[in-house]
Records
---
Amino acid sequence: MEYEKVLSKSMEIISALDWTLSPEEITQKTQELIDLGNVEYEKIVSIPSEQRFFANVVKKLDLISLQLTNLNASLYFPAYMSTDSEIRKISNEASQTISKYFIEVGMREDLYQAVKDAKQNSRDNLDTIDSRLVERQLRDFRRNGLDLEDSIKVKIKSIRKELAKLSIEFSQVLNEIKDTVEYTESELSGIPESTISNFKKDESGNYLVGMSYPEVLPVLDYAKDSNTRAKMAKVYGNRGIAEGNVARLEKAITLKDELAKLKGYENHAEFMLEVKMAKNPKNVIDFIDDLIVKLKPKGISDLDLLVKEKQKDGDSETKINFEDWRYYKRVVVENDYNVDDEVIKQYFPMKKTVEGMLQFYQDLLSLIFIELNNVPKWHDHVQVYAILDKNTDNFIGIFYLDLFPRDGKFNHAAAFPLIHGRQMENGSYCQPVAAMECNFTKPTKETPSLLQHSEVVTLYHEFGHIMHQTITKSRYATFSGSSVSRDFVEAPSQMLENWIWEPMILSKITSHYKTGEVMPMDLVDKLVKSRDAFSGLTDLRQLFFGKYDMIAHTNSQLESQKLWHELQEETSLIPPYPKTNPAASFGHIMGGYDAGYYGYMWSKVIAQDMFTKFQENGITSSDIGMDYRRHILEHGNDFDENELVERFLGRKTNNKAFLKSLGLEN
Ligand SMILES: [Zn+2]
């Protein structure tokens, strides 16, 4: 496709986005969005019940959701990228108002009735994806409790309110933790000078170390004296207890169980997992227990390395305590793996690394990216690209790259969907747009921007999400792009991290910022070897959190400290610090990730399994890349995630590849 044509097509698509809105306009357009929704929903409920069909109700609801979500892009996204604090504040408020509105829409009984009628009237001539859309809409209304008697609904509402309050208080406590540990200078021996100089001091000249990661981790990682680390472990493991978080957590577990039972579920986990790839708590527990057994040998050999290191310190004790494991792990990694981040990063100058990443994705997935000049964007640094299909030359979508930090900008790395894909009634396709936000150091004339290897991994990971969000051909907005369940959504990106650990790829994409030389093989080997350092203990720790979360949410009562102490050493091989209760500061379990902590390991296992398809056929095989596009990326959530993966692999997924990647046979 000629550049001019690509440009005009792109302009047409992004004309739906507006990055110039003032705070007043954001507020006004938020109201317009809600008004539009109300008008459209009213049209649906005013259709007489015998005239309600798939097309004018179910399909129409999907279209309205597309229109509203796409309008929302210009309203919610400024909160993440604007340099104007007033705009960020208003954008945040807009986003909350709109989420609240969508929740209210999900509670509308008249809309639920319309979908039920449509199902009744148009039962026979729907294909799999149409039927899936009907069932999805019914499911979501049902999960909101719309089938229940009024007295139960009232009860549910009051429990939800109580839960929301507990959850807010729980995280407020954690945000406002003021605990400190007092140390003399000699107690901090081993911690780098540059870190110590950032610690606060009291009048007597002692150091007061707080509970933020940049304070806690250096103490646990570097302090030579185990008593120093133990003092920290004790205070850190008891955060939130004095402020009442244990009672809040345990109460919340009971309330969530009650809520689930009122809705007709056995427990909270069963309710949460109904909409996940894992489906039910039994599958999750089986998954976790199986992995624990199989990872234990690696965990035990990891532990052995720590014990040996501890004995070198003249300690005859053979037990690794909570306050020991991070410290000895760091020592062993430094001695045995000897990977110097400062040397590695010289081979990843940012500009070339990003270009290499874009080339990698184009080759693997048979795509062409065309940079667009002079198109509207929110900042000069932002780059905009059109995506074309290499084989057919068809226009696919657009992405923005926003790579450098700015004041007030979102300070992690993430991919944001802006316009969602959908088949339109006139036969055209609503082409998706997504944005990647990162924070790499901006190069200057004197100093190039060099990326840590971990930042390169992040880059490939986040761009994997961009591909998932844009390379979609789903018929409906409900299923398009990365709108898959949360225990699968990371899998495509986790899979794509693998390439950045492949010697063949590293020798291609690295280039020393001064000499242009590729990374020498011995450095590549060291880097690759370091990937699995202590992966046994690290993954067992993840599985411990996942299991704790799952047990808590399949029961009506939680004795949070007792369960923690019963479970931690048994699953992760590292004991908790005596008499602490880290559950009082386990934010994930209170909201958001509740009954979902297993998801990270779940998707990681699937990611490794999907990667085998490339390993078997050559990791740069564009044929397999095309299969991956067709079966995973293009389908979004058109089918159950288990089915998508099975179509791609040609078999059911299993954990063999994951274990093999850790050097474990099974
Ligand atoms: Zn991710």
---
Amino acid sequence: MLIQKWNVQKKGDIDMASYQLEVKQQNKKLILKTVYQLEPISRADLAKVLSLTKATVSNLVDELVQEHYLEQVGLGKSSGGRRPLMLKINEKAGYTISVDIGVNYIRSILTDLKGGIMKKAVETTDTNVYEDTMRYIETMVNNLINDMDDAPFGLVGIGFGVPGLVDSDGTVISTPNLDWQESDIRKRFEAAFDVHVIVENEANAGAFGEKSFGEGISSDHFIYISGGIGIGVGLIFDGVLYRGRNGFTGELGHTIIQMDGLTCSCGKKGCWERYASELYILKEYEKLKGMPWHQLTLEEAVTEAAADEDVRAIFHRAARHFAIGLTNIINSFNPEKIIVGNRLTQAEQYMLPVIEEVIAETAISPIAKGVGIHFNNTDQLATVLGLSAFSIERFFDREFST
Ligand SMILES: [Zn+2]
């Protein structure tokens, strides 16, 4: 009887210990998340925001500082007594690398744990052969790793943005605009660099980038449009990225705006992206220039548009088509704003005025009223920043899981 009783107590002790550890880990994660959003912040304010006792917060903060997650910076304003020590994320304690694999470019960044960009690189590419692309990226990643200073956590993750269907596990299912017959990105880079790897649809990553670090920070209902050779769409609903059943949301580039229209890379006809993307512009530009479209660039077309009415007319046509797609999106989802990112942002001056005009005519007025259309052309970094935000979020989740 005695032994049995002892066993029961022992089991209870263990359960209580693991419960306490779980609570502690959860509280540490909560503190980190709160500092991340509100830094610099004092221990007293943290306790208030989180409804925890000052003693609990102080103990956990001390641990987090010792473990390199947080650091103490300067003194804040006093509310009567001593001026409090302020806390911030120790963003230089680790790095992320993110790679946006476009159809005709590869863009990569090295960031700290707050998404601060330490280094960036962008190259135009003329091959979509999987092996060539992978080898090219491996060199890029190695170069970025060589630029890292010593840091307690080192490289916490590599993220890849891919233009295509990517399931919730990071498996690439299809890439209509690339010549990929296979894809083992995640396994390949995990094995080669011994680091956590995430693979995401590039437009979903772009939407998350705008939500985490960009023009969507203060908006809970916005749509991110990635305009490149194809068009990808990321949906932020109620403040979070909407992924659908398998992670396949956002293929709105393949909604049909022209019945029996031009053949799209997906094999269907009349898709929105075939009429409103960089590909449409280049194929129309090809007719003007008498050169194959893949030897022409959007940059050239944008430059020429300043002095050439015919080139401007191409952008205006693309913009009208772009606006029809946006009208369908606005009528469907009732967003606060639309953020346009990626390559097409270079054509803002020729496209945006036309887009706004057409939307005013075609979208349902009460839904379209007040919807801002923003071209975010700050280096077209939304996708890579979103990938970094995913890597950072998963790093903290891993560190504080029980
Ligand atoms: Zn299509």
